[in-house]
Write a structure and sequence with these properties.
Layout: E1 5-8, H1 26-52, H2 61-74, E2 77-83, E3 87-93, E4 95-106, H3 133-152, E5 157-165, H4 177-187, E6 199-202, E7 213-216, E8 224-233, E9 237-238, H5 248-268, E10 273-281, E11 288-289, E12 292-301
Parallel strand pairs: 1-7, 4-5, 4-6
Antiparallel strand pairs: 2-3, 3-5, 8-12, 9-11, 10-12
Helix pairs in contact: 1-3, 2-3
The protein binds zinc ion.
GO molecular function: hydrolase activity
Organism: Candidatus Magasanikbacteria bacterium GW2011_GWC2_45_8
InterPro entries: Amidohydrolase, Peptidase_M20
């Protein structure tokens, strides 16, 4: 097991009030390290199983059942399950008077075909855990195990809420997994004004980070994304009139090239947007230039060049 180091890109401050934050004593730290070694094979086993059996956002029913079964085996109290298909909220209760911390893991896969040589490998054609959400879920289950043991030994001050969130990859949609989980936590009195949760942490693996480094930063850490849909209309015409009738696909190509030119330097500085062409539709006749065409760009607010799946970016259906 690597020694973990924490690297901060920018100043990090705990959202928990300083006077209620406590340093871990050396014996507890050693205990946690020993527990980590103990639960590592169990976490790896869950990761393998989840990687081989991926489910897309909104369809994580079996994944949710597996998580629920594992939590029950550990004796962790499940507060809600089956949220938006497979979402779960569980809690490890520690000593009274401490803060309530929430930890969140996402659980959905992507519509991508995994390479044949990978191991473990998805058993489902066209669906694979390519964003690491299987690692997140396995890690949160490992954390649940350790917190449960700490609580049993009366070494845990306060409660830990475990949030297994579905549909992260559909964050650009209104009914995203995050909004469903937040709505449920609001209903339950865990979030919102007077809510029980004092601090909420989410984490994401990042291939650019060296092994053994934990990167923390105050404020926004990961990227957000959204879609821009553009619909173009013209008069259309016969393909032989290519130089008289605007070719909408040519215009989409031009837009894509220009966006790439504009955003690449900003992306490289980690400070602005990238926009990638996703779809372009238009035209049906063999020799007809379309009178109407639609295209979609995915726009990512690139913080630390990482992920497209972390929160909602409201730039939908822009028109030009
Ligand atoms: Zn992700």
């Amino acid at each position: 097991m690597p020694n973990f180091r924490i690297k901060s890109f920018g100043e990090f401050k705990s959202p928990v009030e300083q006077d209620s934050a406590q340093e871990l004593d050396a014996s507890t730290l050693e205990y946690i390290k020993a527990e980590l070694r103990e639960v590592a094979p169990e976490m790896e086993g869950f990761y393998h199983d989840m990687h081989e059996n991926p489910e897309l956002g909104g369809e994580e029913v079996e994944t949710g059942k597996r998580i629920g079964a594992r939590l029950q085996e550990m004796g962790v109290e499940i507060l809600k399950e089956g949220i938006n298909g497979g979402g779960l909220i569980a809690i490890v209760r520690g000593k009274e008077g401490g803060p309530t911390i929430a930890l969140r893991a996402d659980m959905d896969a992507l519509p991508i075909q995994e390479r044949a040589e990978n191991s473990p490998r998805s058993k489902k054609d066209g669906v694979a855990h390519m964003c690491g959400h299987d690692i997140h879920t396995a890690s949160l289950l490992g954390a649940a195990h350790i917190f449960k043991d700490l609580a049993a030994q009366e070494k845990l001050d306060g409660d830990v809420v475990l949030v297994f969130q579905p549909s992260e990859e559909k964050a650009h949609q209104k009914a995203s997994g995050a909004s469903r989980m937040v709505a449920r936590l609001l209903q339950m009195g865990y979030m919102g004004e007077g809510g029980k949760i004092d601090a909420f942490f989410g984490a994401h693996v990042m291939r650019e980070m060296p092994r053994g480094i934990v990167n923390v930063k105050e404020g926004v850490q990961l990227a957000s994304s959204g879609e821009v849909d553009i619909k173009l209309k013209t008069k259309g015409g016969h393909i032989m009139n290519a130089f008289e009738v605007p070719n909408l696909h040519l215009i989409f190509s031009e837009i894509t090239m220009r966006l790439s030119e504009v955003f690449k330097p900003l992306y490289e500085k980690n400070e602005a947007l990238v926009a990638s062409a996703r779809t372009a539709y238009g035209g049906t006749g063999y020799n007809v230039l379309p009178a109407e065409a639609k295209a979609t760009w995915v726009v990512v607010k690139a913080k630390l060049k990482c992920h497209t799946c972390c929160c909602v970016f409201s730039l939908k259906s822009a028109r030009i």
